Amino acid sequence: MRIGIPQGLLYFRYASLWKECLSVMGTEVVSSPETTDNILADGIKHSVCDICLPVKAFFGHVLALKDNVDYLFIPRFIRIEPDAYLCPKFLGLPDMVQAAIRNLPPVIDTEFNIKEKTVMTFWQEVEASLKRRKNSLLSANMNFNGSMPESISFTPNNQDKKLHIGMAGRPYLVLDRCLNKGIIRYINKLGIIVTYHTPEKNYISDTMSMLPKWVYWSMGKEVVSSVRWMLENNDIDGIILLTNAGCGPDSFVAELIEHSLPVGKKPYMTLCIDEHTSDTGLQTRIEAFIDMVIRNSKSL
Question: What is the pLDDT of residues 198-245, one digit of tens each?
Fold first, then answer.
């Protein structure tokens, strides 16, 4: 039995866990390739204009998998923590995919809602939907919650400017080399380190307590807390917040950061990306931003 996992959205956080659990059930796990211009173009053709770029790319990954697998793994993620939601697009993702793309294999759309059920219960329901041997997971020694590295650093081969840029944003936008328009690679070519940071839960809670009102979206909370961490980290010389044009939560989070955090402490820039964004235009903005970071570092 071949289970297809589209390499988009929460794949960047939970891929290793998903693959391990599905493999323990006796299935062969197949991932789609990394996002390419062709995958993105196919996804855009099958989507509507008012959804965000990462979801459009996800449709392209589904198309790349659908004829080569027996099932598609597209869970309905609602909550990954009790007191916050994921974006509404995650809640309706299996429905959108099945409405937009024809001739799909069966979709595993098991609901993930940590407030209503345990992670183990979720996997047992997946197991039942696949008609696997009951409780095959119980003998496996694994962390069902999954995790991401706290910090990921991208170091250039030739670090000639001795600068360090913090990159904040949703993991499926920042870490996808096609969707981020090669921004990290380009900054590295300029001889500059780039760091992406995922804050710990206690740090996120502390950050939320500083705000007039908590952020309701789990990844929005992470983005705000990540920017705060970068502002407080003396090794970070400048901060770039990467957002995408069709993301409603991002539009609120970007404004919240500028109004609630002391972003004037360091050079700070928000870059908003969609499928029409010009690579050359982005590079020009990055070069101007790096010039500002260099001037600021010399003045200190």
Answer: 999 899 999 999 988 888 899 999 999 999 999 999 999 999 999 988
Residue whose tokens read 């260099």: 294
In whole angstroms, give the CA distance from residue 239 to residue 265.
10
Judge whether 167 and 194 are in contact, CB under 8 Å: yes
| CA 144 to each of CA 14, 17, 21: distance values in angstroms, whole numbers, following the listed order | 10, 7, 8
- For residues 39 and 54, what is the distance between their CA atoms, to the nearest angstrom? 11
Q: How far apart are CA 45 and CA 118, in angstroms?
A: 37
Looking at residue 265, the DSSP 8-state letter turns out to be G
Residue 89 main-chain phi, psi, to 5 deg: -65, -30
Query: What's the pLDDT tens digit per position in 146-184?
Result: 555 577 888 887 766 678 999 999 999 999 999 999 999
Q: Are 227 and 242 in contact (CB under 8 A)?
A: no
Rounded mean pLDDT, 59-65:
96
> Which residues, 6+ apart, have CB-to-CB distance to 39 below 8 Å?
32, 33, 57, 60, 61, 63, 64, 178
**Structure tokens that stand for 293 in this block:** 């970071």
| Helix locations, 200-244, DSSP H | 201-209, 218-232
**Helices of type H across the chain:** 11-24, 37-45, 53-65, 88-91, 93-100, 119-129, 171-174, 183-189, 201-209, 218-232, 248-260, 279-299
Indicate yes or no: pTM above 0.85: yes
How large is the angle between the packed helices 37-45 and 53-65, nearest 10 degrees? 100
| Residue located via tokens 């309706």 | 92
105: left (phi over 0), alpha (psi -120 to 50) or beta: beta
* The token pair that represents 188 in the structure block: 């590295």
